[in-house]
Design goal:
Helix content is 39%, strand content 13%. It has 17 helices and 13 strands. The protein is of the alpha/beta class. The longest helix is centred in the middle third of the chain and has 25 residues. It has a single domain, classed as Glycosidases (TIM Barrel, Alpha-Beta Barrel).
C-alpha cells in the first residue's frame, strides 16, 4: 500500500460506494506454557495455519512457461511501488518451497493457505494449459501432505493474466468471469484429489477498488463509480462460477468459500442498541459483495445509496453468485468503523477515528483486538454460517535485526496475543470460528510497499534469501502447541 491510501482504509470508502527491545539479552526461544485448563483454550480440532500468496513469494515470473500478470506490468510503472522493487524474485519460493514448508512444520502448523498463480497454469488466462505450471502446485501439495500439513488453496490472489486485461479489460468484462470459472474447473479437477479446501477470490473489495477505482493497485485504473460497482458485481459472479466449477469438477466433498477483507464494524460501546447498530452496519457496509454472495440479494440501502451507479444484473446471475458455500473466510486486521446507534438513516452512525488511535508499524493497521471478536460473531448471525475461518490476520513490525542476529518483535507478539485472546473469547461463546491463518509465514513482497513492510513470522534477507525466525515464531508455536491464546 502507499501512505496516501492505506491498505484497509479503502474498505470504508468501498463499503460506502458499494510487526524491539533495547539491549536485548538471551535467546529467542521461550519456554512452552502448560496446556490450558479445560474450557480455557480454543475448541478441539481448531485449525492453526499460516498463509502466503503466489506473486508475493514465488518469484520465477519468467520460468517454466508462466505468462505475465497485471502485477508484472504494474510494478514497472515508475512511482507505483514505494521502494521500486518487484515480485520478479520475491522469496524464490518457486525454488525454495521445500525449505519454506519445513518452516511451516517447525511452527507446528497443520494448515497452509497458498494461492495458485493463474498465469502460471494458463499463461494467457485461457486456451492451452501449461503443464509445468500445474506441476509446481502438484509438487507443493505433495510436499505439504508429506509433512502433515493440509493445503488450503486460493484460486485468485490478484495476479490476473495480463492477456485478459488486454483483451477484455480484466474484471470489467463477464468474459473474464467465465474464463475464471474454466480455470477453477481445471485446478479443481487436478488438485482436489489432495486439496480439501478451496478459497475462491481473495479480497474482492481491495483489488476492485484499489485496482480499478483509485489506481493504487494493478491494473492502475481510475474508473467512474458505476463501473467500479459493476466490476465488483462481476467479481461476485466470478466467485459464484468458481463455486459451481469446484462442485462440478472437484472431488466430492471438496469445500469451497470466499476470503474477504470484510469492512470490519464493531460497537463503540457494548450495549444492546449499539450491538444491533454494528450488526446493521456490518451488513450494509459489506452490501456490495459479501451480502449478495451469502444471501443472493443486494440490500435496499446499498441500491438506494448507489442510485444510478448501481450494478446491472440478472436474476440468473444472482442465483450463480449465491451458490451455497461451505465456509466464510474473513481477513481481519483492524477496525474500519466503530459505530453507535442512530435514529437517522439506516440506524447506525460510524464514528470518526481520532488521530491518537493506536496503530502498528503500518499507519492503517489500527490496534482494535475486539474487532476479531465482534466481526465473526455478528457475521455468523447475519449470514447464518456455521463455519468461519480467519483467512488472514497479522501485522507488520519494526523487525530490527539486533547485533546477536535475532529479531525481538514484541510489537507483533503484543498484537497477536491481544487479537487471539479476543478470538478465543469468541469461540468460548460458541461463535463458529473453526480456524486461523496468520499472515504471513515470512516477509514478502507487500504489494505497493514493495519489500518495505514486513509481516512475516520469519525474517527474510532478500539479498541472501536467508530465513530467520522472529520471536513471534516462538510465540505462535506455543499458541499452537497449547491451543490457547497464552493470556
Amino acid at each position: 500500500m502507499s501512505d496516501k491510501v492505506s491498505r484497509r482504509q479503502f474498505a470504508k470508502i468501498a463499503g460506502l460506494s458499494a510487526a524491539g527491545i533495547a539491549n536485548p539479552v538471551g535467546a529467542v526461544e521461550v519456554n512452552p506454557a502448560p496446556p490450558p485448563r479445560a474450557g480455557t483454550g480454543f475448541p478441539a480440532g481448531f485449525v492453526w495455519g499460516t498463509a502466503t500468496s503466489s506473486y508475493q513469494v514465488e518469484g520465477a515470473v519468467n520460468e517454466d512457461g508462466r505468462g505475465a500478470s497485471i502485477w508484472d506490468k504494474f510494478v514497472r510503472i515508475p512511482g507505483k511501488i514505494e521502494d521500486g522493487t518487484t515480485g520478479d524474485r520475491a522469496n524464490e519460493h518457486y525454488r525454495r518451497y521445500k525449505e519454506d514448508i519445513a518452516l511451516i512444520k517447525e511452527l507446528g502448523c497443520k494448515a497452509y493457505r497458498f494461492s495458485v498463480a493463474w498465469p502460471r497454469v494458463f499463461p494467457d488466462g485461457d486456451g492451452k494449459p501449461n503443464p509445468k505450471g500445474l506441476d509446481f502446485y502438484n509438487r507443493l501439495v505433495d510436499e505439504l501432505l508429506k509433512n502433515g500439513i493440509e493445503p488450503w488453496l486460493t484460486l485468485y490472489h490478484w495476479d490476473l493474466p495480463q492477456s485478459l486485461q488486454d483483451r477484455f479489460g480484466g474484471w470489467r468484462s463477464t468474459e473474464t468471469c467465465k474464463i475464471f470459472g474454466d480455470y477453477a474447473a481445471y485446478v479443481a479437477a487436478h488438485l482436489t484429489d489432495r486439496v480439501n479446501n478451496v478459497f475462491t477470490l481473495n479480497e474482492s473489495g481491495r483489488f476492485v477498488y484499489f485496482g480499478y477505482g483509485i489506481g493504487i493497485d494493478a491494473p492502475g485504473l481510475t474508473l467512474p463509480q458505476a463501473e467500479i460497482n459493476q466490476i465488483r458485481h462481476n467479481s461476485a459472479l466470478a466467485h459464484g462460477l468458481a463455486v459451481q466449477a469446484v462442485r462440478a469438477h472437484g472431488r466430492h466433498g471438496t469445500r469451497v468459500g470466499p476470503a474477504e477483507n470484510i469492512d470490519a464494524c464493531a460497537p463503540a460501546i457494548d450495549t444492546p442498541e449499539n450491538v444491533r447498530a454494528a450488526e446493521i452496519a456490518l451488513r450494509e457496509m459489506n452490501g456490495g459483495y459479501l451480502n449478495v454472495i451469502m444471501t443472493g440479494q443486494y440490500t435496499e440501502a446499498f441500491l438506494k445509496f448507489a442510485g444510478a451507479n448501481a450494478p446491472k444484473y440478472t436474476d440468473a446471475e444472482l442465483k450463480i453468485i449465491s451458490s451455497p458455500v461451505d465456509f466464510l473466510g474473513l481477513n481481519i486486521y483492524a477496525p474500519q468503523n466503530y459505530v453507535v446507534a442512530s435514529d437517522q438513516g439506516a440506524g447506525f452512525m460510524p464514528l470518526p477515528i481520532p488521530k491518537s488511535f493506536p496503530h502498528m508499524n503500518s499507519d492503517w493497521l489500527r490496534v482494535g483486538p475486539e474487532t476479531i471478536y465482534w466481526v465473526p460473531k455478528l457475521a455468523a448471525k447475519i449470514w447464518k454460517t456455521d463455519a468461519i475461518y480467519i483467512s488472514e490476520n497479522g501485522t507488520s513490525g519494526d523487525d530490527v535485526v539486533r547485533p546477536d542476529g535475532k529479531i525481538y518483535d514484541t510489537d507483533r507478539i503484543m498484537y497477536l496475543r491481544n487479537y487471539l485472546a479476543q478470538l478465543q473469547r469468541a469461540t468460548s461463546e460458541g461463535v463458529p470460528v473453526r480456524g486461523y491463518f496468520l499472515w504471513s509465514l515470512m516477509d514478502n513482497f507487500e504489494w505497493v510497499y514493495g519489500l518495505n513492510k514486513r509481516f512475516g513470522l520469519y525474517h527474510v534477507n532478500f539479498d541472501t534469501q536467508v530465513r530467520t525466525p522472529k520471536l513471534s515464531a516462538s510465540f505462535y508455536r506455543n499458541v499452537i502447541a497449547t491451543n490457547a491464546a497464552g493470556v
